[in-house]
Amino acid sequence: MLQGKHDNYDIDLMRSLIEATAAAAGTDPDGPHRASHRVIADHLRACGFLIADGVLPSNEGRGYVLRRVMRRAMRHAHHMGTNDPVLWKLVPPLVAQMGQAFPELARAESLITETLKLEETRFQQMLVRGIRLLEHHTTDLGAGSTLSGDVAFQLYATFGFPLDLTQDALRPRGITVDGDGFTAAMARQKAEARKAWAGSGEAATESLWFELRDQVGATEFLGYTAEAAEGRIVALVVDGKAVSEARAGTTVAVIANQTPFYGESGGQSGDAGTLTLPGKGRVVVTDTQKKLGVLHVHLGTVEGGTVVVGDVARFEVDGERRAAIRGHHSATHLLHAALRRTLGEHVTQKGSLVAPGRLRFDFSHPKPLSPDEIHTVERDVNRQVRHNDAVTTRLMDPEPAIEAGAMALFGEKYGDEVRVVAMGATNSEGERPFSVELCGGTHVSRTGDIGMVKILAESAVAAGVRRIEAVAGAATETFVADQQDLLARAAVTLKAPSTELPARLSAMVEERRKLERELAEARKRIALGNDAAAESGIKIVAGIAFDGRVLESVPARDLKGMADEIRTRLGSGVVALITVNDGKASLVVSVTEDLAARFNAVDLVRAGAEAVGGKGGGGRPDMAQAGGPDGNRAGAALEVIERSVGAVAVA
């Protein structure tokens, strides 16, 4: 109303995005594709805000909703004739239009851009494969025909083709899709999946936990303040069935009314330890799982005596193992905070593993970390460790905790009361602690208890998701000691001080490269021989010069260079080289430029590969390579290539 418009899409907020879309697609914003421009502009906003909030495309939950929204926009871009990813190019106009009011868009711009680009690239690849299959199944269908619902479902299940995309692709040809058949095929698939799930032993055991929860109630967790306590055994499970007792040697799952054992959840490994029954033996617990969010299930083996439901046992956690887990868990909190400070606030946790000997932390970020970024993150974490500040825990209502700055993990369910864990020093301006998160895990009392943190590796795990692996405390000491030992052994082997190892290794690598080049040249000279010998080995096959050779002790990587040199000497003709290493044959076929229109090197090399038990082969029409497992038939492969040259020449 304020802008004198009668349509939401004509106001400045949307019109700027529509015009940017039209410019990227090279189409008229008010032309035949007017509706597509509007869909893309609207969906681009939704995708941008979802990704900025930490949602990434996946096949389930909110990530699946995002993927469907993204693909609908991508389908409309495809309808307009765009063959390359285009949505990611529209992120700067989106940020320019709305970034001031919503600064999270600007902070996450690189993540939004990279996520859209990767997802659209995958969508284009899926589209090409799906359309190829669709064309195969509709070759004989004319206007007025109907595509089988089974085929439409195959496109959906295999390539992610939604039914409406298949219908859109066939509508211009006057072909409809059997929607009822599609629905029936999907129903059959779901029924088979349910049948397989219901029949599995693990699924049957999972259903048992629901019954036990109703019977015995929730387990009270005492482990925040205690590592040993007494508890009454309220249920025993053996081989997926509830039992009243378990004898010595039996693998058993034990549930008690209360326990100091932490059940695996939130990425933190479950505790190990012992359950001691005075005068009756004990259970050695190797792991503790948390079922249905409320049952702490102790998994272990009965050692001596018989354990009976109703017995009172002393539950003792392996303190050293618990301390190592606590240190690694607290280190992940500091790592998360340091990553956000170094890379930007678009960084959010996407998964973690906290074990006694290591930690793994997955987070949203569109590209690999540089060595400098890794160093900065590691330095900031260890600075907080050295400050040795107290780690504080408060129980709060979720909303006030989040409003106060506590990091909440997307997808996590929080109850009426949450634990807010704060650690790390505040700065001179009195800002909040270095890390504040909602967390139900166990943590150190002071950051100094973590010990030194060392990042071991950084890698990709999914589109827009990176992974850091690290160690803390005693595990860091072990890692450093192992590295020192390797360094010392390397210094002894190279007879040089450890400070000179980089220079010495660089010199050795360069010397090896030089020797490899000289060896390759020597092998080439020996294999090719002199010009006169080379010319004597050339055959004329149906008027075509053919130089075919089985070479000895020549690495497969050298074949292309040798084929190039022979082709130059030959002037006009076909070259075929085969070498055998470790019983396997490698083949290269090269065709001179004047014959490339008549002879395809890819076809020739594939024919030779079949003779040595290989399949396929690839390259260009003038140069191709292949291989096979049967090096004993190298000579036969050469003959096959020669016959193929003759057959093409006389055709």
Describe this structure in words.
The chain is of the alpha+beta class and 651 residues long. It folds into 4 domains: 8-139, no CATH class; 205-317, Elongation Factor Tu (Ef-tu), domain 3, CATH 2.40.30; 327-479, Threonyl-trna Synthetase, Chain A, domain 2 (Threonyl-tRNA Synthetase, Chain A, domain 2); 526-650, Diaminopimelate Epimerase, Chain A, domain 1 (Roll). 45% of the residues lie in helices and 22% in strands. It contains 19 helices and 26 strands. It has a 6-stranded antiparallel beta barrel. A 6-stranded mixed β-sheet has the order 21-22-23-24-26-25, with helices on both faces. A hairpin with a 2-residue loop joins strand 25 and strand 26. Helix 3 crosses helix 6 (109-138), helix 7 (149-159) packs across helix 9 and helix 18 (601-611) runs antiparallel to helix 19 (634-650). The radius of gyration is 33 Å and the shape is globular. The termini are far apart. The model is unreliable at 197-201 (pLDDT under 50).
Tags for this model:
Elongation Factor Tu (Ef-tu), domain 3, Threonyl-tRNA Synthetase, Chain A, domain 2, 22% strand, 651 residues, 6-stranded antiparallel barrel, globular, alpha+beta
Based on CA atoms alone, the radius of gyration comes out at: 33 Å
Question: What is the tally of helical segments?
Answer: 19
CATH class of the largest domain: Alpha Beta
The fraction of residues in strands falls at 15-25%
Please tell me the CATH architecture of the largest domain by its name.
2-Layer Sandwich
Q: Any idea of the CATH topology of the largest domain? A: Threonyl-tRNA Synthetase, Chain A, domain 2
How many structural domains in the coordinates? 4
- CA-CA gap between termini: 76 Å
Largest sheet: 6 strands, antiparallel, barrel
Helix-strand makeup class? alpha+beta
Uncertain runs are 197-201
**CATH homologous superfamily descriptor of the largest domain:** Threonyl-trna Synthetase, Chain A, domain 2
